[in-house]
Amino acid sequence: MAAVSLRLGDLVWGKLGRYPPWPGKIVNPPKDLKKPRGKKCFFVKFFGTEDHAWIKVEQLKPYHPHKEEMIKINKGKRFQQAVDAVEEFLRKTKGKDQASSHNSSEEKNRRNSSEERGKQSAGEEKRKASLSEGKVKKGTGEGKKRVSSVSSERGSKSPLKRAQDQSPRKRGRPPKDEKDLTIPESSTVKRVMTGTVAGFKWPPSVSEPVKDSDPHFHHFLLSQTEKPAVCYQAITKKLKVCEEETGSTSIQAADSTAVNGSITPTDKKIGFLGLGLMGSGIVSNLLKMGHTVTVWNRTAEKCDLFIQEGARLGRTPAEVVSTCDITFACVSDPKAAKDLVLGPSGVLQGIRPGKCYVDMSTVDADTVTELAQVIVSRGGRFLEAPVSGNQQLSNDGMLVILAAGDRGLYEDCSSCFQAMGKTSFFLGEVGNAAKMMLIVNMVQGSFMATIAEGLTLAQVTGQSQQTLLDILNQGQLASIFLDQKCQNILQGNFKPDFYLKYIQKDLRLAIALGDSVNHPTPMAAAANEVYKRAKALDQSDNDMSAVYRAYIH
């Protein structure tokens, strides 16, 4: 079967990692998003999702020829919504093209009519000029002298030429107001579907913002500087770069659901230490995406499942680090993070020049800075990369990764971050990611305590808790987090998705961060006291939503 040529604007089916082929459109990539080396691929935005990725050519199929085939094999509700989004896009495009075609026809008719009127006007002026010349020839000498005088006053142009110059329109040209009329361009989809496709050509300048009227996609760009100041912006329709006075440059924030389908796993050997709620999901996704992974856990039995999935077993942290190129770690708190590196048979004993260590634990900036110093002192490379999310997001490969430290190591971890997360941010020097992660979890923990407080207040005042949830879900606070945590409370199901003891730890560290810079954190302090009470009620190993029980006891 002959290969099908693809080009910018094509509607396609693209493979989305663990997901079935998904409908999307080939578009210009965001500013500074580099094309992967060594393989021909296109940048695709997928309908009905927030996903966008570089996809290999062999993983793409034209939309229309394969539409019926894909619809037959995929029956999911989300998939159908994506197909509906494509059809809606095509309907809007067709309407715009018809309007453009109609406007073009009307413009052509106006131009033809203008030309005809111009011809008629010129003919009439020519006839009048001929009559005038005849009268002059028959006139007296005095008449000739008068005509000569008039001619010299008007200049040397002939009457016909003067008539043409005085005409408001020149022959064969549209009037000034028509000339300035802008005819809408046909959409890229129509151009691709009807035009001859000679092959894909990248736009002459990728520095220009991507222009797209498609409302079905959202993109994330990160603005990062060498200084700690960082900002990002969620962008729809047009991709922009959020810049600061310090002079920022944008880097890609990988959207893993889509990128998973097109990434080539790194050929580096990967190690992973810590198979808790978050670590287990991360390792599973690394293996699914084809990475070579060696695992270690303090409780060795937790490794068995991953050995069955193809992972290798490391006997100690030092052994894992010494046999792997990049070793990740995800443990519970600052003490565990230090013990893992500095303890017997720890990470530090396996570090040699060039070995890489990535700490994904949520700890304070002082702890991560100390760990970075001892790793680098042995010739190793260090990156902090705490993750925002929960067990479910970890299992789904939809974590948000906040990284800081060795920028080259961050880039070396690209395929790993794409496998485990939906977005990754590089935040500059070591310590920045720890600080940002604590602030994020401070907000989340405080919000959870407020939710629990509102539900208990509703109950004691005779209001329906379910109705309160329904109202919140229809308002500006609506979110997956709000709905899930309220459902946990209403159903009395506190199976851990994010341990209560860990959110309390993060609140404590965030308050200490505020104290270190003399910044008040009264809301976080109040929430922390509620979580401490919940821990006293033996809720430490339940989900953070069990903070509700601190209000009812």
From TrEMBL:
Domain of life: Eukaryota
Primary site of residence: nucleus
Any one GO cellular component localisation term in the record: nucleus
Pfam family, one: NAD_binding_2
SUPFAM superfamilies hit by this protein: 6-phosphogluconate dehydrogenase C-terminal domain-like, NAD(P)-binding Rossmann-fold domains, Tudor/PWWP/MBT
InterPro entries: 6-PGluconate_DH-like_C_sf, 6PGD_dom2, 6PGDH_NADP-bd, GLYR1_PWWP, HIBADH-like_NADP-bd, HIBADH-related_NP60_sf, NAD(P)-bd_dom_sf, PWWP_dom
Entry-linked SMART domains: PWWP
Comp. bias (Basic and acidic residues): 92-145, 162-182
Keywords: Chromosome, Nucleus
Segments of this protein annotated with the region Disordered: 92-188
Gene Ontology molecular-function annotations: DNA binding; NAD binding; NADP binding; nucleosome binding
Ranges of residues in domain PWWP: 8-66
One Gene Ontology biological process: transcription elongation-coupled chromatin remodeling
Location of this chain's protein in the cell: Chromosome; Nucleus
PANTHER family: CYTOKINE-LIKE NUCLEAR FACTOR N-PAC (PTHR43580:SF2), OXIDOREDUCTASE GLYR1-RELATED (PTHR43580)
Family: Belongs to the HIBADH-related family. NP60 subfamily.
Name the record gives this protein: Cytokine-like nuclear factor N-PAC
Origin species: Pomatostomus ruficeps (Chestnut-crowned babbler)
